[in-house]
Structures are given as structure tokens and as C-alpha cells.
Amino acid sequence: MNIYTRKKRWKFSLFLLAVLIVAASLWYSNITVRKISSEEKRNIQIWANAIQRRVSLVDYTEDFFESLKQEERKRVELLAEATKRLIYAENSEELTFYSDIIAGNTTIPVIQTDSRGKIIGVKNVDFEIADVPYLEGTLRDEFSIYEPVKVSTYGNVSYLYYKDSKTYTELRTYLEDMVRSFISEVVLNSASVPVIITDSSRTRVLEFGNIDSLKINDPGYVSRLLHEMADQNEPIRLDLVEQGTWYIFWKDSYLLTQLRYYPFIQFGVIGLFLLLAYFLFSTARRSEQNQVWVGMSKETAHQLGTPISSMIAWIELLKLKQLDNKIVQEIEKDVTRLENITERFSKIGSPPRLSPENLVEAVYDAVEYIKNRTSKKIQYTINIPRDHEIIVPLNAHLFGWVIENLCKNAIDAMGGIGTISVSISEDSRRVFVDVSDTGKGIPRSHQKTIFSPGYTSKKRGWGLGLTLSKRIIKNYHRGKIFVRSSVIDQGTTFRIVLNK
């Protein structure tokens, strides 16, 4: 019993040590992950701040272009007014002033037409009036982006058509390139942050980065992801003049997410490996134990064979001497008993050979044998009569050995005084044999250990009886044996379950 007590302490100590190692490893891993997480968040924050600055720059540039557009409109209106005043000018000084205003326009393309669309003047265009007499077709579309300026002089009406200046167009192209570059920088960020850019509805995806391109086509997945991103970080709003309002959604990188869960996955894998290793080592250990059991049993049967043969010869010799027949019969019984024991040991390790047997008869035989060799202070009861039949696949010799072992343990637990009750019951598939005593009981902490090799509460016991009983029931009869109930100082009930 001491070895199993120490074994439990070793298991508890090793388990406690394993828990401490895992806790310490998780603590250190979490510290490392938090450091990496802080660094990752710092990089993400730098990225987000850069995006905000770029958003501000884009907003400012859009405002600047809007102002530039308004200024060009005012300049065209000024040209129209100067043209009108030039016609009404009364002296040379006014003529020079208004002519200078008109000549000062060197950037804005302007076309002046009459009410019928005939071109009467051009400025900063790449064609001559002689080649293009009327404003029509694609040329008219090109110069109709903005509302023309109406010029009325002496009852005549003309119109000034204009478009964006070359400088404005170049700057506008640069802005669009900058916006495209900005979007590329957002979706293909160096921090590997999953990013989605949506329109003003915050549902339609315009661009995305670091997200599975197959999943992005799933509306349900996109909706859940946008909600997750919005919960983690406030979306960045981007107001563009031509494109409208956009929103940038983003969340922690996949690397950071993996680092958070990596320690748990790591210890899960290690735990699975340890369980597998424990299972393999336990299987190997049980296989070695089985080999030892088989070897010892075969050797015991072999060693008993020779003296039993000699005793049989001596019995025959005693019969010839015509000694007391009663004495010879008792010796024959003991020799027969030894032969049964030898047969039991010889069958351990051999393929089980079960045959239909009456379980009730086998129980009565085993109890009868042990009853004749114990004190009269031990009372035996069996709940069903001997002539009742319950046929099950059974090896009568080995099963009788189990009943004998249980009865012997019960006798020791009762101190030689008490009652042993055997109860047999059945259902449609199984048979139950309960062996109860009125002994000292078994502590709950030992109820699983008592079937282990070497466990015994006796000073001179080897702790092999219950181990052999479990092997006979479990390995040979494919049944079960366990402690059904036990109360200290009131008794114990062992249950055997056999399949019909």
C-alpha cells in the first residue's frame, strides 16, 4: 500500500510542478506577447496617424483646388466685363487698361461666340478661328463643363466659353495620382493591417487590403468584419470633393492575433503530445506487466506439476497400504485442489476459452469450497436457489477463483466474524454478481487502487488476488469488476458484470 500512497504523492507533486511550469511559461509568454503587442500597436498607431495626416493633406488640397476653380471663374467673369468695357471705352487710357486685362490671361482657354455659336474670338487654345468657325461637337462639350459667361453690348449678345487652365489640369492630375497613391498606401500597408475602404454608406467595399479576396465577396462576412473593425477602432473618415465621403476600417494585424493565441495553442499541442506519450508508455508498461504475469503463472504451473504428480503416486501407495479411507479422500481433495490451481495458472496468458456454463452452479461451487475451509463464525448467503439456471459464456475454473478471492478478502476484512452475501441478478443483456461483506470497509481514496498489483492492507499479503480477479473478468470474460459501494465499519460490496 505504501508504494501506491507514494505514487499518488508523486503524481500530485508532478502535476503541481507541471501546473507551475505551464503557469510560468504562460506568464512569460504573455509578457512577451504584450511587449510585441505594444510595439505592434505603436506601429499601427503611427500608420493611423500618417493616414490622418494624409487625409488632412487631401482635404486641404481639395479645398485648394475648389478655391482655384472659383478664382478661375472670377477671372473669366473679369474678362467678360473687360471685353464689354473695352467696347464702351471713350478714351485711349481706358482702352489700354481693358486691353491689358484681356491680354493678361495667359493660362485660361477661352472661346467667345455669338448667339448662334459662331466663334468670334479665342485665347490660349491650340486652333485657329479659320480652321474651326463654329463651337460645336466635342469642342463644345469640352468647353461646356462650366456655365459660359454672357456678354451684352449694344443689344448684341455673345458668350465666353472656358475650361480649366493647363496649370489647374496638371495640378488636378497630380491630386488624383496622390489620391490613388494614398489608397494604395492604405490598403497595402507595411504593418500588415487588414483594411477596408467603403463609400459613405459604410457597407459597399471600394478597396481592401490584407484580407482574403475570396471571403470579401461574401456580404455576411464583410458585414461581420466591418462591425468587428468598428468595435476595435473608430473608422477614419475621408472627405473627397469628387469621390465623396469614404471610410477607412481597420483592425489589429493577423500577426498580433496569432501571437495572442500562440501560447495556448503551443501548450495544447505539448499537452496532446504528452498525453499521447503517456498512453504509449502506459500501453508498453501494461504489455510488460502482462508478459511478467504470464511468465510467472506458467512457471508456477510448471513448478507445481512435479510435486502434484508425486503426491498422486503417494496417494495410490497409501491406498495399497489400506490406511483410513477418510484421510486418503481428504488428501485427494487437496491434490485435486492443487490441480485446479495449476490449471488456473497455466491458463493465464492463453487465449480465453469460454463455454456456456450455469453461473449459479459456479458460484455455489466456489462458495461451498471456501465455506468448508473457514470458521463457522462466517455466515454465507446466496439470494437464488442452486437449481436456478443462468447460462453465460464462462470459464468455470477461473471464475471460481475470482469468487474465492473476493470471499477471502471479505473474511480478512471482517476479522473472521460476519456475513458474506452473494446476490445474482440479470437483465436482457447482462448478469450481475454482487459479493457483500460486513467488514471494515474501504476508504474512497483506495477503491480504485485496490486492483493494482502489490496493493494490500495485510501484513503478509502479496496484493495479487484482486489484480488476478480483474484480469480474469476483464481480459478473459470481457466483463467488469469494481467496488459498487463501501461504508467504513459497515462493509463493502464488489460487483461483477458479465455479458450473456
- At CATH level 3, the topology of the domain at 353-499 is Heat Shock Protein 90
Largest sheet data: 5 strands, mixed
Helical fraction equals 55-70%
With strands numbered from the N-terminus, the spatial order across the biggest sheet is: 10-12-13-15-14
Identify low-pLDDT runs. none
* Average of per-residue pLDDT values: 78
* Measured distance between first and last alpha carbons: 35 Å
Radius of gyration: 52 Å
Shape: rod-shaped
Structure notes:
The protein has 500 residues and is an alpha+beta fold. It has a domain at 353-499: 2-Layer Sandwich (Heat Shock Protein 90), CATH 3.30.565. It is built from ten helices and 15 strands. The strands form four sheets. The chain has a five-stranded mixed beta sheet. A four-stranded antiparallel beta sheet has the order 2-1-4-3, with helices on one face. It has a four-stranded antiparallel beta sheet with strand order 6-5-8-7. α8 crosses α9. The protein starts with a helix and ends with a strand. 20% of the residues are buried.
